[in-house]
Amino acid sequence: xxxxxxxxxxxxxxxxxxxxxxxxxxxxxxxxxxxxxxxxxxxxxxxxxxxxxxxxxxxxxxxxxxxxxxxxxxxxxxxxxxxxxxxxxxxxxxxxxxxxxxxxxxxxxxxxxxxxxxxxxxxxxxxxxxxxxxxxx
Length: 137
Fold this sequence. Notes:
The chain is 42% helix and 20% strand. The protein is built from four helices and five strands, in the order H-H-H-E-E-E-E-E-H. A five-stranded antiparallel sheet has the order 1-2-3-4-5.
């Protein structure tokens, strides 16, 4: 029988989300918190997070950067459009860049909503830009 309890990391993320919901932060304070979370990442995940942060805000400057379950996320009209989860967050083997249902990335009857990221190459950057631009259209 599987263990139905939350991991230590999942519990921490839920506590972070509760704290985020109670906060009455300005856009600048929210951005500062995202940058603080990125700075705290390990040496492998941090450069990926920094680059994705730059790419997302350049591709869709209207998005608001703030944390979501303690992860960097990008909001439109108060809803999460996309997010970055560093591998260290839940002790996974790769970082993830994902989209929530507020993102307009629908593609027929079946499409990907998250992507494993191990390196941001020019080809990966191009894909992220296209997806982010489409997500806010």
